[in-house]
Backbone:
């Protein structure tokens, strides 16, 4: 063991100043002693002064006793091999100009035992990254790369670890940052030498991303399928997207994809047959593509034969009401009940008409969508109790509500009511009867409305926007100030505006479990001009099916279940709601309701349910889709003999993607923190030489800081106290 004292030497100026002070202090003390009458006592005080000055001076030099001890041991070297899915990317250029996958390149190096020159100095161990990662995490069998856990595990397994040669592409998508493990390894004097395997640039590729489609559909419904296409090609291409239908007659769409861009696209598919259908969306493989497995995405849609129940309420038989009722009556997937109030006159009568508003929760629960025309509160129209029923069936049971104001301005009476809170717009109290125009006005789609399922009358957003501008105009619009926060404005007035911008005319918003729509004109029937029912029927058919969609995810006599998200991914929390009715069709208020879940592993578990107060028979619960696959949800009410099973498919979440560039930045940071060295595949020999040059023993350095010890300060204080006491005893002031 070697020891020596280490001090912080002052600068030249500091040394001169300190020396001058000490010389001056000594001179003054000597003169006082020389002139004094008690030479012995003065000499003792002079000596104490000098001791104090010396001790303070020594403290300011911050002396430390440094000990160096050499520790000799057998060092270990770990070759850490990344064998995760991203390593199958084929982008490593070999010396003979051929291209191999990252995994194959690493496999060849391990097979050749490239570490042989180091075997005489180090105890070499080869660790596979997949063996070091704990896969029992919160997302089940989800695969990915946890570089931080792998480095930490290597450090903990090997107590004499001197260096790590990391063969990896640097991709990590699970766990914490690998820089955390690198910091710990630096403190343990372990050096990491990352060898970046793979190119740091994208491979030429086309990839379909983010496909979204509904889990179920009703026969005759138009399904909107959205997706993204990422191009990593160096050229612009025009290609064809194909939706492969199980019925034949595949849908094709021509798309233009700029070089290196991400585009958002959509296709419309109209369901014609009931059953569970497997579909796929594909894009042709380009000549220079290197990855062909990501040009297709598969998904499933369950198509059912359903009849949607609609309640249409209005005060007068205006043109909008007549054509809307005819459109709904002629729709084979819709059953319409009509309440025409005729204030002051006999209420509407005939096929499909009802005399009175549904009298209770059991009666109102029958309807999937409610249309409210130019009706209001009081004056022989709607009561507060009826408004409460409408609100309850929308918010609690997921029905849809459509506001269709008219020139009588009766919907202004709803503003202070519970339905006013649900309305997605703020009405203008200064224009209760709306605005009339001498010439036809147009509705302009917003960016949100251009590709919204409610407004899609053509197959492309651009064509849809143009079509809406060319639809026959309207001569009246409702008095509206602005849309409420959180609402989606799909269309605005083509010319009228106020301090908040153009007047919103087609607006939708969530209300509890249901959807609410506001249409601020009464002239949709004019869209029939020149094309008959083509656009008018399509629009209202889409409105009814879109608003009724949540209620029909799963239902059986006595129980209705819907859940969000409709297409869950692995790791998502699925929230579901069950509406339960008794044997007489009334919402269940008393009785036992239970839920159970069978996971893809066939493991069954009980789910806790929470009853929502209000008498609507609503129960809510949730579960986490930890694995990809089919979840069988069972809800039953044994007291009334009702039971329903629902299959919910959770898609696998791809966190480990093939074809991404190697993350050189991450590997360089690991090398910098651990005082190792970064290298590429053609620099592997240099890494071997650098590891050979590492010292195989450690120097243990310990420091004993004298200046910061408590007892040293106590000694200085003691000498100062002795000096002060002697001065007082001997009469010195």
Residues:
């Amino acid at each position: 063991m070697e020891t020596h004292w280490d001090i912080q030497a002052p600068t030249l100026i500091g040394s001169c100043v300190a020396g001058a002070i000490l010389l001056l202090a000594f001179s003054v003390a000597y003169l006082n002693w020389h002139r004094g009458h008690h030479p012995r006592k003065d000499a003792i005080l002079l000596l104490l002064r000098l001791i104090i000055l010396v001790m303070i001076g020594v403290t300011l030099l911050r002396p430390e006793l440094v000990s160096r001890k050499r520790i000799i041991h057998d060092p270990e070297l770990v070759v850490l091999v990344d064998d995760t899915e991203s390593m199958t990317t084929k982008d490593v250029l070999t010396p003979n100009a051929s291209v191999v996958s990252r995994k194959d390149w690493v496999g060849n190096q391990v097979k050749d035992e490239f570490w042989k020159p180091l075997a005489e100095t180090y105890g070499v161990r080869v660790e596979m990254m997949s063996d070091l990662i704990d896969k029992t995490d919160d997302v089940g069998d989800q695969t990915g790369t946890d570089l931080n856990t792998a480095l930490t595990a290597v450090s903990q397994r090997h107590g004499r670890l001197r260096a790590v040669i990391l063969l990896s592409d640097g991709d990590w998508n699970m766990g914490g940052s690998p820089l955390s493990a690198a910091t710990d390894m630096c403190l343990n004097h372990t050096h990491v030498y990352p060898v970046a395997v793979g190119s740091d640039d994208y491979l030429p590729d086309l990839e379909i991303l983010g496909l979204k489609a509904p889990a179920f559909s009703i026969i005759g419904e138009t399904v909107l399928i959205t997706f993204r296409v990422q191009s990593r090609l160096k050229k612009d291409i025009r290609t064809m997207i194909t939706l492969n239908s199980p019925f034949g007659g595949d849908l094709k769409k021509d798309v233009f994809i700029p070089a290196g861009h991400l585009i958002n696209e959509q296709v419309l598919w109209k369901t014609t047959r009931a059953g569970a259908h497997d579909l796929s969306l594909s894009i042709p493989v380009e000549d220079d593509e290197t990855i062909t497995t990501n040009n297709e995405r598969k998904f499933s849609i369950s198509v059912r034969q359903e009849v949607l129940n609609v309640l249409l309420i209005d005060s007068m038989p205006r043109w909008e009401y007549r054509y809307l009722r005819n459109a709904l009556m002629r729709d084979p997937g819709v059953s319409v009940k009509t309440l025409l109030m005729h204030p002051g006159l006999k209420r509407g009568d005939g096929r499909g008409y009802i005399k009175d508003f549904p009298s209770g929760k059991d009666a109102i629960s029958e309807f999937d969508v409610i249309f409210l025309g130019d009706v209001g509160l009081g004056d022989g129209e709607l009561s507060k109790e009826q408004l409460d029923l409408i609100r309850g069936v929308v918010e609690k049971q997921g029905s849809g509500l459509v506001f269709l104001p008219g020139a009588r301005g009766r919907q202004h009476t709803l503003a202070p009511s519970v339905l006013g809170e649900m309305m997605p717009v703020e009405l203008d109290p200064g224009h209760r009867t709306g605005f009339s125009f001498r010439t036809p006005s147009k509705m302009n789609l917003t960016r949100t409305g251009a590709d919204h399922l409610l407004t899609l009358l053509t197959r492309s957003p651009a064509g849809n926007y143009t079509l809406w501008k060319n639809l026959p105009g309207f001569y009246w619009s409702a008095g509206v100030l602005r849309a409420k926060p959180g609402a989606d404005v799909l269309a605005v007035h083509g010319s009228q505006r106020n301090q908040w911008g153009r007047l919103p005319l087609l607006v939708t918003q969530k209300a509890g479990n249901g959807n609410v729509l506001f249409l601020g004109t009464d002239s949709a029937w004019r869209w029939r001009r020149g094309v008959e029912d083509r656009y008018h029927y399509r629009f209202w058919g889409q409105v009814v099916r879109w608003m009724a969609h949540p209620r029909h995810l799963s239902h059986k006599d006595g129980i209705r279940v819907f859940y969000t998200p409709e297409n869950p991914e692995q790791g998502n929390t699925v929230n579901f709601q069950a509406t339960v009715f008794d044997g007489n069709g009334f919402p269940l208020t008393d009785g036992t309701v239970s839920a159970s879940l069978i996971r893809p592993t066939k493991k069954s578990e009980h789910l806790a349910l929470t009853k929502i107060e209000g008498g609507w028979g609503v129960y809510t619960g949730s579960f986490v889709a930890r694995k990809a696959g089919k979840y069988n949800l069972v809800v039953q009410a044994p007291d009334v003999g009702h039971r329903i099973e629902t299959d919910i498919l959770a898609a696998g979440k791809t966190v480990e993607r093939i074809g991404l560039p190697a993350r050189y930045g991450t590997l360089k940071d690991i090398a910098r923190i651990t005082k190792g060295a970064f290298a590429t595949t053609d620099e592997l020999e240099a890494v071997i030489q650098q590891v050979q040059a590492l010292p195989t023993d450690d120097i243990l350095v310990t420091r004993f800081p004298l200046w910061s010890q408590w007892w040293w300060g106590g000694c200085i204080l003691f000498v100062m106290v002795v000096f002060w006491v002697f001065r007082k005893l001997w009469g010195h002031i």
Remarks:
- Residues 196 and 500 are 55 Å apart (CA to CA).
- The first strand starts at residue 2 and ends at 6.
- The two ends are 51 Å apart (CA to CA).
- Residues 135-139 have pLDDT under 50 and may be disordered.
